[in-house]
Write a structure and sequence with these properties.
By secondary structure, this protein is an all-alpha fold. The chain has helices at 2-7, 10-36, 42-99, 104-125, 132-146, 153-181, 187-201, 209-233, 245-259. It has one domain. Helix 3 (42-99) packs antiparallel against helix 4, helix 3 runs parallel beside helix 9 and helix 4 (104-125) runs antiparallel to helix 9.
Length: 261
Amino acid sequence: MIEFLLSLSTFTGSVLTMTISTALGIVVYVTSYKLISKYQTEEMKDSTNSLFRAVGILVSLMLSLAFAEVVVEVRAIENAIEREAVSIKDTYDDLQRFDAEKTRGIRATLVEYTQALIDDDWPALANDRLGQRASYLNGQLQKSAIELEPTTGAQKQLWSRILSDLDSASDYRLIRLDNALAKPPIYLYVVFVGFLITMACFGAYRPQAPLVVLVTMYTLFIGLVLYLILALSDPFQGGIGVDPGTFERLAENMRAELDQP
Protein backbone atom coordinates (compact mmCIF):
# COMPACT_ATOMS: atom_id res chain seq x y z
CA MET A 1 0.00 0.00 0.00
CA ILE A 2 2.79 2.39 0.92
CA GLU A 3 4.69 1.65 -2.31
CA PHE A 4 1.50 2.24 -4.29
CA LEU A 5 0.88 5.62 -2.63
CA LEU A 6 4.46 6.75 -3.24
CA SER A 7 4.33 5.62 -6.88
CA LEU A 8 1.57 8.17 -7.51
CA SER A 9 2.09 11.88 -8.09
CA THR A 10 2.43 14.00 -4.97
CA PHE A 11 -1.03 15.52 -5.38
CA THR A 12 -2.76 12.22 -6.10
CA GLY A 13 -0.93 10.36 -3.34
CA SER A 14 -1.66 13.00 -0.71
CA VAL A 15 -5.34 13.30 -1.70
CA LEU A 16 -5.74 9.52 -1.64
CA THR A 17 -4.08 9.24 1.78
CA MET A 18 -6.29 12.02 3.19
CA THR A 19 -9.36 10.36 1.70
CA ILE A 20 -8.48 7.01 3.27
CA SER A 21 -7.78 8.55 6.69
CA THR A 22 -11.02 10.53 6.57
CA ALA A 23 -13.11 7.56 5.47
CA LEU A 24 -11.65 5.30 8.17
CA GLY A 25 -11.93 8.03 10.80
CA ILE A 26 -15.59 8.79 10.07
CA VAL A 27 -16.48 5.08 9.97
CA VAL A 28 -14.80 4.49 13.34
CA TYR A 29 -16.49 7.61 14.79
CA VAL A 30 -19.99 6.64 13.64
CA THR A 31 -19.54 2.99 14.63
CA SER A 32 -18.26 4.00 18.06
CA TYR A 33 -21.21 6.35 18.58
CA LYS A 34 -23.70 3.63 17.72
CA LEU A 35 -22.04 1.16 20.09
CA ILE A 36 -21.77 3.43 23.13
CA SER A 37 -24.73 5.80 22.66
CA LYS A 38 -26.94 3.66 24.91
CA TYR A 39 -24.37 3.97 27.69
CA GLN A 40 -24.21 7.77 27.53
CA THR A 41 -23.87 9.29 31.03
CA GLU A 42 -21.98 12.27 32.39
CA GLU A 43 -19.53 9.90 34.06
CA MET A 44 -19.01 8.14 30.71
CA LYS A 45 -18.33 11.44 28.97
CA ASP A 46 -15.82 12.49 31.63
CA SER A 47 -13.94 9.19 31.32
CA THR A 48 -13.98 9.41 27.53
CA ASN A 49 -12.70 12.99 27.61
CA SER A 50 -9.78 11.96 29.81
CA LEU A 51 -8.94 9.06 27.50
CA PHE A 52 -9.33 11.31 24.45
CA ARG A 53 -6.88 13.88 25.82
CA ALA A 54 -4.31 11.23 26.82
CA VAL A 55 -4.40 9.41 23.47
CA GLY A 56 -4.54 12.67 21.51
CA ILE A 57 -1.41 13.98 23.22
CA LEU A 58 0.44 10.70 22.60
CA VAL A 59 -0.58 10.66 18.92
CA SER A 60 0.53 14.28 18.51
CA LEU A 61 3.90 13.62 20.15
CA MET A 62 4.57 10.52 18.06
CA LEU A 63 3.56 12.31 14.85
CA SER A 64 5.94 15.15 15.73
CA LEU A 65 8.72 12.68 16.48
CA ALA A 66 8.20 10.76 13.24
CA PHE A 67 8.08 13.94 11.16
CA ALA A 68 11.20 15.35 12.84
CA GLU A 69 13.04 12.06 12.26
CA VAL A 70 12.39 11.94 8.51
CA VAL A 71 13.27 15.64 8.13
CA VAL A 72 16.62 15.01 9.85
CA GLU A 73 17.24 12.04 7.56
CA VAL A 74 16.50 14.11 4.44
CA ARG A 75 18.89 16.81 5.60
CA ALA A 76 21.56 14.15 6.19
CA ILE A 77 21.07 12.93 2.62
CA GLU A 78 21.29 16.47 1.27
CA ASN A 79 24.53 17.03 3.20
CA ALA A 80 25.94 13.75 1.85
CA ILE A 81 25.04 14.82 -1.69
CA GLU A 82 26.75 18.18 -1.25
CA ARG A 83 29.89 16.48 0.06
CA GLU A 84 29.78 13.92 -2.74
CA ALA A 85 29.61 16.75 -5.28
CA VAL A 86 32.56 18.49 -3.59
CA SER A 87 34.60 15.27 -3.74
CA ILE A 88 33.83 14.89 -7.46
CA LYS A 89 34.74 18.51 -8.20
CA ASP A 90 37.95 18.25 -6.18
CA THR A 91 38.85 15.11 -8.14
CA TYR A 92 38.26 16.93 -11.42
CA ASP A 93 40.38 19.92 -10.36
CA ASP A 94 43.22 17.73 -9.08
CA LEU A 95 43.22 15.70 -12.29
CA GLN A 96 43.56 18.92 -14.23
CA ARG A 97 46.48 20.03 -12.05
CA PHE A 98 48.07 16.58 -12.31
CA ASP A 99 48.40 16.78 -16.10
CA ALA A 100 45.67 18.51 -18.12
CA GLU A 101 46.37 16.61 -21.36
CA LYS A 102 47.14 13.22 -19.86
CA THR A 103 44.02 13.19 -17.67
CA ARG A 104 41.58 14.64 -20.21
CA GLY A 105 40.05 11.20 -20.85
CA ILE A 106 39.61 10.54 -17.12
CA ARG A 107 38.00 13.92 -16.64
CA ALA A 108 35.61 13.20 -19.52
CA THR A 109 34.69 9.92 -17.79
CA LEU A 110 34.16 11.85 -14.55
CA VAL A 111 31.73 14.19 -16.31
CA GLU A 112 29.96 11.17 -17.83
CA TYR A 113 29.81 9.56 -14.39
CA THR A 114 28.25 12.69 -12.85
CA GLN A 115 25.63 12.72 -15.60
CA ALA A 116 24.98 9.02 -14.93
CA LEU A 117 24.25 9.83 -11.30
CA ILE A 118 21.37 11.97 -12.59
CA ASP A 119 20.10 9.79 -15.44
CA ASP A 120 20.85 6.34 -14.00
CA ASP A 121 21.34 6.46 -10.23
CA TRP A 122 18.30 8.56 -9.32
CA PRO A 123 15.71 6.40 -11.12
CA ALA A 124 17.41 3.29 -9.70
CA LEU A 125 17.30 4.68 -6.15
CA ALA A 126 13.53 5.00 -6.50
CA ASN A 127 13.60 1.19 -6.76
CA ASP A 128 16.03 0.83 -3.82
CA ARG A 129 19.18 0.08 -5.83
CA LEU A 130 22.12 1.81 -7.51
CA GLY A 131 22.35 2.40 -11.24
CA GLN A 132 24.39 -0.13 -13.21
CA ARG A 133 25.92 2.39 -15.60
CA ALA A 134 26.95 4.71 -12.76
CA SER A 135 28.51 1.75 -10.95
CA TYR A 136 30.41 0.73 -14.09
CA LEU A 137 31.74 4.25 -14.65
CA ASN A 138 32.72 4.48 -10.98
CA GLY A 139 34.80 1.33 -11.40
CA GLN A 140 36.41 2.77 -14.54
CA LEU A 141 37.32 5.94 -12.68
CA GLN A 142 38.87 4.00 -9.80
CA LYS A 143 40.90 1.88 -12.23
CA SER A 144 42.07 4.86 -14.31
CA ALA A 145 43.06 6.82 -11.20
CA ILE A 146 45.07 3.93 -9.78
CA GLU A 147 46.91 3.56 -13.10
CA LEU A 148 48.10 7.17 -13.07
CA GLU A 149 51.87 7.37 -12.76
CA PRO A 150 53.02 10.35 -10.69
CA THR A 151 56.53 11.46 -11.51
CA THR A 152 57.00 14.41 -9.18
CA GLY A 153 56.40 15.06 -5.50
CA ALA A 154 53.47 17.36 -6.31
CA GLN A 155 51.89 14.73 -8.55
CA LYS A 156 52.24 12.12 -5.82
CA GLN A 157 50.33 14.35 -3.42
CA LEU A 158 47.66 15.05 -6.04
CA TRP A 159 47.41 11.34 -6.86
CA SER A 160 46.82 10.51 -3.20
CA ARG A 161 44.13 13.20 -2.97
CA ILE A 162 42.44 11.96 -6.16
CA LEU A 163 42.17 8.42 -4.82
CA SER A 164 40.92 9.69 -1.47
CA ASP A 165 38.24 11.90 -3.07
CA LEU A 166 37.03 9.07 -5.32
CA ASP A 167 36.73 6.81 -2.28
CA SER A 168 34.80 9.53 -0.43
CA ALA A 169 32.44 10.01 -3.39
CA SER A 170 31.76 6.26 -3.43
CA ASP A 171 31.06 6.27 0.31
CA TYR A 172 28.59 9.15 0.00
CA ARG A 173 26.90 7.30 -2.86
CA LEU A 174 26.37 4.33 -0.54
CA ILE A 175 24.82 6.68 2.02
CA ARG A 176 22.17 7.50 -0.58
CA LEU A 177 21.51 3.80 -1.08
CA ASP A 178 21.26 3.17 2.68
CA ASN A 179 18.64 5.89 2.99
CA ALA A 180 16.75 4.63 -0.04
CA LEU A 181 16.53 1.22 1.65
CA ALA A 182 15.33 2.70 4.95
CA LYS A 183 11.75 1.96 5.99
CA PRO A 184 9.21 4.40 7.47
CA PRO A 185 9.49 4.78 11.27
CA ILE A 186 8.04 1.62 12.83
CA TYR A 187 6.03 3.60 15.36
CA LEU A 188 4.14 5.22 12.51
CA TYR A 189 1.87 2.19 12.59
CA VAL A 190 1.31 2.79 16.29
CA VAL A 191 0.40 6.39 15.47
CA PHE A 192 -2.24 5.16 13.02
CA VAL A 193 -3.74 2.87 15.67
CA GLY A 194 -3.73 5.78 18.11
CA PHE A 195 -5.51 7.91 15.50
CA LEU A 196 -8.28 5.29 15.21
CA ILE A 197 -8.60 5.14 19.03
CA THR A 198 -8.91 8.93 19.06
CA MET A 199 -11.71 8.73 16.49
CA ALA A 200 -13.43 6.07 18.62
CA CYS A 201 -13.36 8.48 21.57
CA PHE A 202 -15.37 10.96 19.50
CA GLY A 203 -18.17 8.39 19.72
CA ALA A 204 -19.11 9.87 23.07
CA TYR A 205 -20.58 12.83 21.15
CA ARG A 206 -23.62 12.72 18.89
CA PRO A 207 -22.73 13.43 15.24
CA GLN A 208 -23.80 16.97 14.38
CA ALA A 209 -22.90 19.05 11.34
CA PRO A 210 -20.34 21.35 13.08
CA LEU A 211 -18.70 18.41 14.86
CA VAL A 212 -18.59 16.28 11.71
CA VAL A 213 -16.92 19.15 9.84
CA LEU A 214 -14.29 19.55 12.56
CA VAL A 215 -13.68 15.79 12.68
CA THR A 216 -13.29 15.73 8.89
CA MET A 217 -10.76 18.56 9.02
CA TYR A 218 -8.83 16.68 11.71
CA THR A 219 -8.76 13.44 9.72
CA LEU A 220 -7.66 15.29 6.56
CA PHE A 221 -4.82 16.91 8.47
CA ILE A 222 -3.70 13.58 9.94
CA GLY A 223 -3.79 12.02 6.46
CA LEU A 224 -1.67 14.83 5.02
CA VAL A 225 0.95 14.54 7.77
CA LEU A 226 1.07 10.75 7.39
CA TYR A 227 1.63 11.11 3.64
CA LEU A 228 4.42 13.65 4.15
CA ILE A 229 6.16 11.31 6.61
CA LEU A 230 5.86 8.38 4.20
CA ALA A 231 7.09 10.44 1.24
CA LEU A 232 10.07 11.87 3.11
CA SER A 233 11.01 8.44 4.45
CA ASP A 234 11.66 7.42 0.80
CA PRO A 235 13.12 10.68 -0.56
CA PHE A 236 14.12 9.28 -3.98
CA GLN A 237 10.58 8.27 -4.92
CA GLY A 238 7.76 10.64 -5.72
CA GLY A 239 7.74 14.42 -6.00
CA ILE A 240 8.74 15.19 -2.41
CA GLY A 241 12.28 14.56 -1.28
CA VAL A 242 15.74 14.98 -2.75
CA ASP A 243 16.45 15.92 -6.35
CA PRO A 244 19.76 15.69 -8.27
CA GLY A 245 19.97 19.44 -8.85
CA THR A 246 23.42 19.64 -7.24
CA PHE A 247 24.81 17.08 -9.71
CA GLU A 248 23.08 18.76 -12.64
CA ARG A 249 24.88 22.04 -11.92
CA LEU A 250 28.15 20.21 -11.27
CA ALA A 251 27.97 18.26 -14.56
CA GLU A 252 27.19 21.44 -16.48
CA ASN A 253 30.14 23.33 -14.96
CA MET A 254 32.62 20.47 -15.50
CA ARG A 255 31.43 19.95 -19.08
CA ALA A 256 31.96 23.66 -19.80
CA GLU A 257 35.50 23.49 -18.37
CA LEU A 258 36.25 20.33 -20.36
CA ASP A 259 35.15 21.97 -23.62
CA GLN A 260 37.47 24.92 -23.10
CA PRO A 261 40.60 24.78 -25.32
